[in-house]
Design a protein that fits this description.
The chain is α/β, with parallel strands linked by helices and 381 residues long. The chain has two domains: 127 residues, 3-Layer(aba) Sandwich (Rossmann fold); 206 residues, 3-Layer(aba) Sandwich (Rossmann fold). The chain is built from twelve helices and 14 strands. The strands form three sheets. The protein has a seven-stranded parallel beta sheet, sandwiched between helices. A five-stranded parallel beta sheet has the order 2-1-3-4-5, sandwiched between helices. The chain has a two-stranded antiparallel sheet with strand order 10-11. Helix 1 packs across helix 5, helix 3 runs parallel beside helix 4 and helix 7 crosses helix 12. The chain is elongated, with a radius of gyration of 21 Å. The C terminus is likely disordered. One of its GO terms (molecular function) is phosphorelay response regulator activity. It comes from Donghicola eburneus. This is Protein-glutamate methylesterase/protein-glutamine glutaminase.
């Protein structure tokens, strides 16, 4: 029997207390091997040169060279899957979003190391994220992978290729896009949403992200998209050309009817698929109140969140797509949707916006008569 070797971890953080606490958590898990702990970028370089880790836990706010600069100048050249463990200050949140766009795999909130905080629970979450990061599909700068990662410059809003989509404004207004993503979703959403035209259908998005980071992400997306993007607030109305991003934290985002049309409601509730907000919860609400005039898309991410309720959208006549393996950072959620028969097609990230726009007003293909719950995987379109 061949046993997989432990995952080699390097912790980079300027807090000696946090380094010590996380190191204890890493050492307590037999699936990990601690390569070392570094207080700054120079120490990290030395560790990487002596014994290359499989994954890195990286703080953003550090003296001398900050984590974002280290990620861009060092790790991006010879990629090592990196999980950002960051404070939730406004500056920390903005830098963390930029780090995710630069290639970091995931982000988790940094515990404040005060009495009453579930520090053990947070370090457990970090271990789960590091295990997933080991298998992430990452690339070095310039690597011609099928779906190039979006750098998301805020200098100018992009323009979709002329005649890229057949856009009918009145028809778009009566349609709804619903999108779910997790690990790798920051880059994926940057690519997809930047290609939507300004008159795209009302869009709701759940991206797994800690509380305190989603507002910075929405603002960043708004700077580089033709559509308006903002963090959703309770009671926001869905309207054409607007993308509402579920806020991270303790509430789920659902779609509900109101006298003036569809709106979003933020409800407290237990996690679903270990997630809150949950893609499954949002997709189920869209299936109930927007179908059949809805297109659902499940993007890169770990786990199964969204796979079941994407199937609900399909069964009530909506259009459903999942990101293909080649362009996903972690092919977990889209794979689960495909294997369950919830997605009608696998689509590469670069083609997703066009496929979604082309689905507006078009009836889905009939459900196959054979058992789609155990169908083989195939390449995306």
């Amino acid at each position: 029997m061949i046993t997989e070797r432990p995952i080699r971890v390097l912790i980079i953080d300027d807090s000696a207390l946090f380094r010590r606490f996380l190191a204890q958590g890493i050492k307590s898990d037999p699936e990990f091997e601690l390569v070392g702990t570094a207080a700054n970028a120079e120490q990290a370089r030395q560790f990487i040169g002596i014994r290359r880790p499989d994954v890195i836990s990286l703080d953003i706010e550090m003296p001398q060279m900050d984590g974002l600069t280290f990620l861009k100048e060092e790790i991006s050249k010879d990629p090592i899957p990196t999980v950002i463990v960051s404070s939730q200050t406004s500056n920390g949140a903005r830098a963390t979003i930029e780090a995710l766009q630069a290639g970091a795999v995931d982000v988790l909130p940094k515990p404040q190391m005060v009495a009453g905080q579930d520090i053990a629970g947070i370090t457990s979450q970090i271990r789960v994220s590091l295990k997933a990061a080991r298998h992430a599909h990452i690339q070095s700068v310039g690597d011609p992978k099928p779906a190039q990662r979006h750098t998301m410059s805020t200098a100018n809003r992009p323009t979709a290729p002329a005649n890229a989509y057949s856009s009918n404004p009145s028809q778009n207004a009566r349609w709804v896009f619903a999108i779910g993503a997790s690990t790798g979703g920051v880059q994926a959403l940057g690519t997809l949403l930047a290609l939507l035209p300004a008159d795209a259908p009302p869009t709701v998005v759940v991206q797994h992200m800690p509380e305190g980071f989603t507002n910075a992400f929405a603002r960043r997306l708004n700077d580089m998209c033709q559509v308006e993007v903002r963090e959703a607030q309770h009671g926001d109305m869905l309207r054409q050309g607007l993308v509402l991003l579920a806020p991270g934290g303790e509430r789920h985002m659902v779609v509900r009817p109101s006298p003036n049309g569809l709106c979003v409601v933020l409800n407290e509730g237990e996690p679903v698929c270990y997630s809150r907000p949950s893609v499954d919860v949002m997709f189920a609400s869209v299936a109930n109140y927007a179908a059949p005039n809805v297109t659902g898309a499940l993007l890169t991410g770990m786990g199964r969140d969204g796979a079941q309720s994407l199937g609900m959208i399909r069964r009530v006549g909506g259009r459903t797509f999942a990101q293909d393996e080649a362009s996903s950072v972690v092919w977990g959620m889209p794979a689960a949707a495909w294997e369950a028969g919830s997605a009608e097609s696998l689509v590469s990230l670069n083609n997703m916006a066009g496929v979604m726009m082309s689905s507006i007003g078009i009836a889905p293909p009939p459900l196959p008569e054979e058992n789609i719950f155990s169908r083989p995987l195939r390449k995306g379109i």
